[in-house]
Amino acid sequence: MSSIEFAHPWYFLLLPLPLLVYWLVPAYHSRESAIKVPFFSQILEALNESPREAAGLLTSQWWQKATLFISWLLIVTALAHPSILGEVQTREEFGRDVMVVVDLSGSMAEQDFTTDGKNLTRLQAAKQVLKEFVDNREGDRFGLILFGDSAFVQTPFTADRTVWLSLLNESDVAMAGQSTNLGDAMGLGIKVFEQNRDPEQQKVMIVLTDGNDTGSFVEPIDAAKIAAAKGIKIYMIAMGDPETVGEQPLDMDVIERVSALTKARSFTAIDQQALIDAYNLIDELEPQTYSTATYRPKISLHHYLIIALVVMHLLVFGALTIKRIREVPNE
């Protein structure tokens, strides 16, 4: 509900000042000399003239007093600086921007993860764990990058976790190609952070992959150096056990160096529990800093009072001018 606030309410103590001046300061009385003419009426009769009204004592009219009272009230109220307070508004102050980078290469279809006795693909397992991770991070903004032969932004940073999870669930293996262009995906994530242009925002990138880089324009190590210079932490999560599917072993040296360069951590998740543990540890290492602030917008009114004062005096002056013009006798 809207209300009125006065920034300097003590100015209202000046309201009785005119009355104090009226009561305490002596009134000014002018003294005029006059000539007494004997036989005044006889002289007028001889000159065939009639007497005219002499100067009288001027008395203030009610409208003059009302004008002075309203003027003083407007001036004092304007000095008190009134403002209309709007409805209470809530501003959300987000703690971190978290960019999640997910590998969609063909190997993410391997069913070497299990939960509740059911086999899951690596991508399905990642979706389950990411849902729980994101649901628990109230106040953070999340972005999503998917990559394979190339990388693309599935969603920029958003605080709407429902939309973010919906877009994650729409992703599928090989929709971005069969390859693993890891370095390009990291470079795209850095570019999205740059577009945000908030130097105070804490920046975190979580990269989930199950393969080595297969020909990015930007090497993962080079991308990590750029990220480190821009204050972006990169947590690397290597999924799966390559020995069980005949894949080329993951280059864990690259995975670990990327995280070390950006002052983050790297993880190996060979099963569902290991993946959960990795995200739980990230949750501990990057505590939530979300907060809300409430405020009420203000609309200042003092200048409207000054405008009203000026308009009132212009109207009074105009009315008096018209009255005097009409009272002037036509010659």
UniProtKB/TrEMBL annotation:
Ranges annotated as spanning the membrane: 6-25, 301-322
Keywords in alphabetical order: Membrane, Transmembrane, Transmembrane helix
Occurrences of domain VWFA (ranges): 97-285
Protein origin, superkingdom: Bacteria
Pfam families assigned: VWA_2
Cited InterPro entries: UPF0353/GerABKA_families (IPR050768), VWF_A (IPR002035), vWFA_dom_sf (IPR036465)
PANTHER family, per the entry: SPORE GERMINATION PROTEIN, VWFA DOMAIN-CONTAINING PROTEIN
Protein name: Ca-activated chloride channel family protein
